């Protein structure tokens, strides 16, 4: 069953100009995006800066005003901000990119993690402390560290504090916005493993937003590629990596450095070929505004943005 | 004539914290040859950027010991005037963040021209402008005459990084140091910038030091790789040897922590990189992160051993290393594949 | 840039109108009116009432306001009750005096602030910097009126280097060389007193700008190009740090206004500040209104000036 369904989501930002600062146009940060995520799966949203991937995540959780579209969470329409009742909000949490700025430096770890508990559950002081300590243990931090401040932790530990806060209320869906891009390689591994572990343990569903195709490949079941606010391709991991159809997807895949130095020449050639194809067939993949077309199914799981045929 | 462009001999760069000096780069000996890309890989806190800044003489408050031989001449403690003659001319650097590396209030053209002015006063204004346009063309900036008069904030991140590169190559440096040149960029832009650096290196036959945390980037770019941990070089080898037959536990751990095909679980290195003040100064610095390896397998004073010609590994612990989640046999067996 | 300036100007007009309404309403709320105390106490209440009616003093406030503003636009601020002369005439001389005092103060302020701020910022955390920072803390802590009194006592009365009151020695012919020198001489001490205190905020601001800019990455880029330290400072750090200071200039005007009120009183310098105090004490409301309005407009125009300067010097705003 789909836990999250997004239909035709649009998030536009006004462009103000002129002497009277009137709205002259809109930046279509998210332009008609539709997808659904099955419970327990990890859905990857990939794109470069300015693609609208982060705005999509923020729009779903209510951090951004939605211009149009519909969001169903667990079958309930939560599009209207007012209807995003507390109960739904507790089932959907977010992990932010930067573990250095997303935790309030003046709050102790205890208060950071207890905050959602205090908002949604009335626990006694003792129960609250017990829960926070359990959460800390779950994310692999010592329960004694509840009285410390964020700056006393390393980047990876901070990100785990952020995760502890996000899972405090046992949510069903976690929107993870570039959760490891500010971290070192080895710390990245730690956080990714941990996210997989708690997914199994708590039956979580992830909307995993990232620019790093390597990590997305490792983490996700289904993947969507975004470009300038629109989807260019969506499919299973296999569809996207082994059978990319859209030229933009191909460009992204070809740009990833290959970790095997013996493949250098092959990779360069691949990149050159894709670039050539991109230059030659640009008009087949993008409309006159340089935007992607609507999605066309090419298999049960695989959708590609192509002009309508015939 | 020697092929060696840069030789670091026992380089030690220390910073004062409180009353004590702590070495961020500790006893580094390393060579960069002409027309070669040396990749330096390490995580934050490994000292790789401190090393680059030492070579460029950009540390304002650091104690530098040891030798930095550039074309055979020691530049570790030369006068500021001598240093300024080298910097921007024979020695140049590309920085990590193109959004902050350019002066926001200066026109792009003037920022590039400054490097030319500083090293060639005789150049006429006209010739200088022509050269700047030529450089902008070389780094692939469209409409260079127009961009000449633009300000940094009018350009995208990728374009700004091209400007930073144009500044660095303006006087055809012999040694180009690129400190995480693509970390702040999108992956398609990264591919273009790396391609550009590779092309420029081939044209100018410069030596390049490429500093990065991204193993994929060095796999694609480097001829040789040095892996740094906690201020020291733990392994040096040519790119194929390093990726196919890594020895040092840190190198192997690092390679296993990157997502790769068919990998179920990523390897996690225990513990954290210690802060500069807390670095273990004696024994194998990596030992506390592989506690399951018997202490007797570490050297008391670990040095770089040449295991095969050109392949150096620090400490003897690599001979006994295995990953804790696999048996020693399986690991040794797995390691013999190529 | 032009769009920005025009938009900024458009904001300024409502600001000024709002200010004038506020001033007018406050004046209305004060007890008494133009007739209070002017008329022979023997005149009967009925006659007074009739007089009020004829002078329009009983009209609703918005009519009176329109009347007042209409006058101002034509340069008529009304009559001063106490000086028995048109406010405009009264203001003219005072305004010029205050203008020269402010200009001189600004000049001294920047003459001190720029070198001190640059030295302090470049050599931060040295003994030199500590002594300059020490001075700025003293400056922040010293009330202007006490400092001005001390200056007056020491340099005016004890040492006798400067005149102790007025704006010019009486009896000199306006326009003559002596007259100009005397004017200048009268300006020096009050301007210097004010500048010595006022400069500290600019010194501090410039210092922190420089310390901030020093750590920017483009400075490292400049060093990597092979630029000498002096070039790095002159071409990159100072230039970039002075721009926000230039923008701060307009706001200095508001500080100047509050400063002149004290300083003119202490030095008996016949400017707007002194007039302001005198007319309050004498309940000369039409003068108070006019002075407050001029001060307010000056402050608003100062802020406008700041924004315009910033838009000219900073390309990030200029382009938009």
From TrEMBL, chain A:
SUPFAM superfamilies: P-loop containing nucleoside triphosphate hydrolases (SSF52540). The keyword Transport applies. Keywords: ATP-binding, Nucleotide-binding, Transport. Residues 4-253 form the ABC transporter domain. GO terms for biological process: peptide transport; transmembrane transport. One of its GO terms (molecular function) is ATP hydrolysis activity. SMART domains: AAA. Gene3D superfamilies: P-loop containing nucleotide triphosphate hydrolases (3.40.50.300). PROSITE patterns: ABC_TRANSPORTER_1, ABC_TRANSPORTER_2. Coiled coil: none annotated. Belongs to the ABC transporter superfamily. This is ABC transporter ATP-binding protein. It comes from Oceanobacillus bengalensis.
Automatic annotation (TrEMBL), chain B:
Residues 6-255 form the ABC transporter domain. CDD domains: ABC_NikE_OppD_transporters. One of its GO terms (biological process) is peptide transport. Its main location: membrane. It is a peripheral membrane protein. One of its GO terms (cellular component) is plasma membrane. It is found in: Cell membrane. The keyword ATP-binding applies. Keywords: ATP-binding, Cell membrane, Membrane, Nucleotide-binding, Transport. One of its GO terms (molecular function) is ATP binding. Belongs to the ABC transporter superfamily. This is ABC transporter ATP-binding protein. It comes from Oceanobacillus bengalensis.
Automatic annotation (TrEMBL), chain C:
SUPFAM superfamilies: MetI-like. GO terms for cellular component: plasma membrane. This is ABC transporter permease. Belongs to the binding-protein-dependent transport system permease family. Keywords: Cell membrane, Membrane, Transmembrane, Transmembrane helix, Transport. InterPro entries: BPD_transp_1_N (IPR045621), MetI-like (IPR000515), MetI-like_sf (IPR035906). It comes from Oceanobacillus bengalensis. Residues 95-306 form the ABC transmembrane type-1 domain. Pfam families: BPD_transp_1 (PF00528), BPD_transp_1_N (PF19300).
């Amino acid at each position: 069953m789909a836990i999250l369904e997004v239909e035709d989501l649009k998030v536009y930002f006004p462009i103000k100009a002129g002497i009277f600062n009137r709205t002259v146009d809109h930046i279509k940060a998210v332009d008609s995006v539709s997808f659904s995520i099955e419970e327990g799966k990890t859905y990857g949203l990939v794109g470069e800066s300015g693609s609208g991937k982060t705005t999509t995540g923020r729009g779903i959780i209510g951090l951004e005003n939605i211009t149009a579209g519909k969001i169903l969470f667990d079958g309930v329409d939560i599009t209207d901000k007012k209807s995003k009742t507390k109960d739904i909000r507790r089932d959907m949490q977010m992990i932010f990119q930067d573990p250095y700025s997303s935790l309030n430096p003046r709050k102790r770890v205890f208060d950071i993690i207890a905050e959602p508990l205090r908002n949604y559950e009335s626990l006694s002081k003792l129960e609250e402390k017990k829960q926070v300590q359990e959460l800390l243990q779950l994310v692999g931090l010592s329960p004694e560290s509840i009285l410390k401040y964020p700056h006393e932790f390393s980047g990876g530990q901070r990100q785990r504090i952020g995760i502890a806060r996000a899972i405090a209320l046992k949510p069903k869906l976690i929107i993870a916005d570039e959760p490891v891009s500010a971290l070192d390689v080895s710390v990245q591994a730690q956080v990714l493993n941990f996210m997989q572990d708690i997914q199994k343990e708590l039956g979580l569903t992830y909307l995993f937003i990232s620019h790093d195709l390597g990590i997305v490949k490792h983490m996700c079941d289904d993947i969507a590629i975004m470009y300038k606010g629109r989807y260019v391709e969506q499919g299973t991991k296999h569809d996207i990596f082994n059978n990319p159809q859209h030229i933009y997807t191909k460009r992204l895949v070809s740009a990833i450095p290959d970790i095997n130095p013996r493949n250098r020449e092959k990779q360069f050639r691949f990149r050159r070929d894709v670039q050539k194809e991109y230059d030659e067939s640009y008009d087949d993949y993008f409309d006159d505004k340089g935007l992607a077309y609507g999605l066309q199914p090419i298999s049960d799981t695989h959708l590609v943005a192509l002009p309508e045929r015939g | 004539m020697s092929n060696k462009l840069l030789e670091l001999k026992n380089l030690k760069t220390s910073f004062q914290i409180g009353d004590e000096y702590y070495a961020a780069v500790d006893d580094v000996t390393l060579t960069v040859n002409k027309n070669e890309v040396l990749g330096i890989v390490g995580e934050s806190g490994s000292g790789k950027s401190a090393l680059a800044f030492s070579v460029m003489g950009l540390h304002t408050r650091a104690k530098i010991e040891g030798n930095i031989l550039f074309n055979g001449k020691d530049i570790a403690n030369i006068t500021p005037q001598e240093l300024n003659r080298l910097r921007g001319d024979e020695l140049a650097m590309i920085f990590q963040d193109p959004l902050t590396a350019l002066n926001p209030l200066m026109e792009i053209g003037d920022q590039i021209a400054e490097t030319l002015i500083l090293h060639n006063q005789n150049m006429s204004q006209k010739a200088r402008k022509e050269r700047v346009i030529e450089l902008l063309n070389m780094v692939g900036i469209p409409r260079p005459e127009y961009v000449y008069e633009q300000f940094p904030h009018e350009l995208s991140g990728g374009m700004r990084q091209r400007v930073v590169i144009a500044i660095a190559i303006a006087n055809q440096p012999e040694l180009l140091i690129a400190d995480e040149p693509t970390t702040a960029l999108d992956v398609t832009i990264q591919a273009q910038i790396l391609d550009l650096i590779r092309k420029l290196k081939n044209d100018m036959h410069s030596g390049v030091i490429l500093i990065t945390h991204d193993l994929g980037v060095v796999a694609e770019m480097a001829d040789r790789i040095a892996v740094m941990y906690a201020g020291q070089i733990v392994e040096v080898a040519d790119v194929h040897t390093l990726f196919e037959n890594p020895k040092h536990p840190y190198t192997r751990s690092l390679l296993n922590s990157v997502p790769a095909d068919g990998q179920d679980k990523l390897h996690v290195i225990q513990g954290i990189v210690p802060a500069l003040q807390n670095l273990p100064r004696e024994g194998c610095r990596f030992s506390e992160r592989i506690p399951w390896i018997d202490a007797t397998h570490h050297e008391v004073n670990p040095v770089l051993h040449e295991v095969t010609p050109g392949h150096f590994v620090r400490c003897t612990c690599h001979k006994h290393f295995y990953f804790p989640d696999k048996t020693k046999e399986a690991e040794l067996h797995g390691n013999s594949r190529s | 840039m032009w769009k920005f300036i025009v938009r900024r100007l458009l904001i300024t007009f409502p600001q000024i109108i709002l200010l004038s309404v506020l001033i007018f309403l406050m004046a209305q709320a004060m007890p008494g009116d133009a007739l209070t105390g002017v008329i022979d106490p023997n005149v009967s209440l009925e006659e007074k009432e009739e007089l009020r009616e004829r002078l329009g003093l009983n009209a609703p406030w918005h009519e009176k306001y329109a009347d007042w503003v209409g006058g101002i636009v034509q340069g008529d601020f009304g009559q001063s009750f106490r000086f028995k002369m048109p406010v405009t005439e009264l203001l003219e001389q005072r305004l010029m005096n205050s203008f020269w005092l402010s200009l001189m103060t600004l000049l001294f302020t920047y003459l001190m602030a720029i070198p001190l701020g640059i030295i302090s910022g470049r050599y931060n955390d040295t003994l030199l910097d500590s002594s300059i920072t020490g001075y700025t803390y003293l400056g922040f802590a010293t009330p202007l009126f006490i400092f001005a009194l001390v200056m007056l006592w020491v340099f005016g009365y004890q040492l006798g280097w400067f005149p102790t009151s007025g704006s010019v020695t009486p009896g000199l012919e306006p326009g003559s060389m002596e007259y100009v020198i005397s004017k200048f001489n009268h300006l020096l001490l009050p301007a210097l007193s004010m500048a010595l205190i006022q400069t500290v905020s600019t010194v501090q601001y410039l210092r922190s700008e420089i310390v901030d800019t020093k750590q920017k990455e483009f400075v490292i880029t400049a060093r990597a190009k092979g630029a000498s330290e002096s070039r790095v400072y002159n071409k990159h750090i100072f230039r970039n740090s002075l721009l926000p200071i230039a923008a701060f200039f307009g706001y200095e005007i508001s500080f100047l206004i509050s400063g002149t009120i004290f300083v003119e009183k202490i030095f008996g310098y016949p400017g707007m500040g002194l007039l302001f105090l005198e007319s309050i004490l004498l309940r000369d409301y039409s003068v108070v209104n006019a002075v407050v309005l001029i001060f307010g407009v000056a402050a608003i125009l100062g802020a406008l000036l700041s924004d315009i300067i910033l838009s000219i010097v900073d390309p990030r705003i200029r382009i938009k």
